[in-house]
Amino acid sequence: MDEDSLTAQEEMKALIDKMGALSKQVKEKSDEEKYLFKTEVKKLQELLSCSQNREDTMTVEQTERLKASMYRMQAEFEQRTRQEETLKKQVRQAEETLADLRRQLEEKMQQPGAQPRAKFSVNLYRDVSKIRWSEEDRNQEVKGFICRKSGTKTFKFDEEKQSQFFITNSLWAMSDSV
After folding, report:
1. Cβ atoms < 10 Å from Cβ of 157
2. pLDDT tier, 78 (very low <50, low <70, confident <90, very high otherwise)
3. How does 119-148 read in b/e, with b if 16+ C-beta sit within 10 Å?
4. CA atoms of 125 and 144, how far apart (whole Å)
5. E strands within the chain?
6. Structure pTM?
């Protein structure tokens, strides 16, 4: 695989993760806000009905304030519902974009020149570095030899004991010294 397809795959994975997180946040936030708004509206309605039954304890002014508060909360609830719908629409559009990107990547991978480019890159690296990898069963070992005009140097690293960083740097150092 070439660097473009790896980058595209990494971008797609990041987009998938981001979409999943966004979708989850939208749902959680939406459910929570709906519950809170409905609870508050219900409480205000109960207070309003109680106040209408007990006119002697609440003034008309207090009742009007409760009504205004209830209407304001209902308007805010409706606004949040519209925002939720907008976010859901954005998530659907992002999912469609992701599906389109996946389709494009599949088409690109099916193109006749996609696989030879990757093979060419590997062969070019092999020819430049002069590293020949051992074809034997690896069992957590990286082994082979570096062949230059001045000589040949073998290498064998244990992946469990040595980091990838160490192995890479050692191979570069060996290829420079041979």
Report:
1. 19
2. confident
3. eeeeeeeeeeeebeeeeeeeeeebebbbee
4. 15
5. 131-133, 141-148, 151-158
6. 0.37
d(CA 176, CA 178) in angstroms, rounded, equals 6
Average pLDDT of the segment spanning 34-54: 72
- pLDDT higher than threshold 70 for residue 1: no
Domain span at residue 145 reads: 120-177
Same-domain status, 129 and 99: no
Tokens of 170: 């050692």
Query: Strands, E, within 22-163: which ranges?
Result: 131-133, 141-148, 151-158
Shared-domain flag, residues 84 and 164: no
What's the pLDDT band for 113 if we cut at 50, 70, 90? low
How many beta carbons lie within 10 A of that of residue 3, not counting itself?
10
**Alpha-carbon gap, residue 132 to 150, rounded angstroms:** 16
Cβ(176)–Cβ(148) below 8 Å: no
- The contacts of residue 133 (CB under 8 Å, 6+ apart) are 142, 143, 144
pLDDT number for residue 7: 64
Q: pLDDT tier at 24 (50, 70, 90 boundaries)?
A: confident
Contact 152, 144 (CB under 8 A): no
Q: Could you say which of 96, 112, 128 is where a domain stops?
A: 112
